[in-house]
Amino acid sequence: MIYYASLYLMAAAYTFAGINHFRNPLMYLKIMPPFLPFPEFLVFASGVAEAGLGLALFFPATRVMAAWGIIALLIAVFPANIYMYQKGGAAFGMPDWALLLRLPLQILASHGAQTRVSSRPMVTKVPGKQSFRFIVLTGGPGAGKTAVMEAARQIFAKQLHILPEAASIVYSGGYPRLGTPVSIRSAQRAIFRVQEELERYAVDEGSTYVALCDRGICDGAAYWPDGADPFYQNIGLSREQVFARYHTVIHLRTPTLDMGYNLSNPMRTESPEQASQLDRRIEQVWEGHPSRFIVPATETFTEKLEHVTDLILAALPSAPMPARMPEGSASRYLL
């Protein structure tokens, strides 16, 4: 929340400052160094740039570009700040100490523009090495994720990291699960932190460049009581930033009761109807990911495993053959 509040405050400040170039151009002409040509044009051009970059900060798709643009703009107008300090008459009666203090503050402002948009996302590029790929296995309760994850552990051996479900880690450790909005929000924030650290571990550990995640960050938006947008605001990431973390998303459809929905899992609290509703919500929060695949409920586990294995193989950087296969599952890959 603090992240977004400071970001939007900065965006609004630059936008209104840019508009003020047109409302009160004389103020800016007074601090324009005399050696610069076309002072009126420069005042209006810098106003357009400042307002445009401020507006661009509001939108995730243009936020990084805007931050670097603001840094360039602050560097470009720095001579005017020096001129203000040198020529007291151009500074509207501001004391010398305030003018002097303003110079390093401009440097801090440029640093803030960059950090406000880059401090949160996790780096998935290892210097000097290939990009890291996260594959998400998601879906509603009872969809078979746990069994598929265990099979993938055997099939792909050391070719990828297998990251456990963050929610299971949190709840099995005794985290309160009261079902109230406050409890749910608190738990989802904890789950996000665990998920973030699991992914960071996979990158830092460095033994491979692919990880299979039992759920991803977007899943938390399906559980958040207030909807997806407040969830992303709470974790300080946009949906686009979260999508960009994951190379492939594989959604396992929750089966109906007559197709084998399992009520015996002690961690599962949802009825078949609730599980189906949650499955749809999870599908919705991942909607729009450029590489999302939905695996329907199947009559046998082998069918589902073969489908998922196909998708994982396609997502691997060089599509290597599995090292070994568990007996009776997806054996056609050994041909």
Keywords summarizing the entry:
Rossmann fold, 14 helices, 2 domains, 56% helix, 5-stranded parallel sheet, alpha/beta, 335 residues, 7% strand, 5 strands, elongated, disordered C terminus
Describe the structure.
With 335 residues, the chain is of the alpha/beta class. It is 56% helix and 7% strand. The protein is built from 14 helices and five strands. Strands 2-3-1-4-5 form a five-stranded parallel β-sheet, sandwiched between helices. The longest helix is centred in the middle third of the chain and has 25 residues, at 181-205. The radius of gyration is 26 Å and the shape is elongated. Mean pLDDT is 76; it is low at 114-129 and 319-335.
Query: How many structural domains can be distinguished in the coordinates?
Result: 2
Rounded to the nearest angstrom, the radius of gyration is 26 Å
Q: In which range does the helix fraction lie?
A: 55-70%
Distance between the termini: 53 Å
Let me know the CATH homologous superfamily of the largest domain: P-loop containing nucleotide triphosphate hydrolases
What's the β-strand tally?
5
Name the overall outline.
Answer: elongated
Low-confidence stretches: 114-129, 319-335
Question: Strand fraction band?
Answer: 5-15%
Query: Biggest β-sheet: count, sense, barrel?
Result: 5 strands, parallel
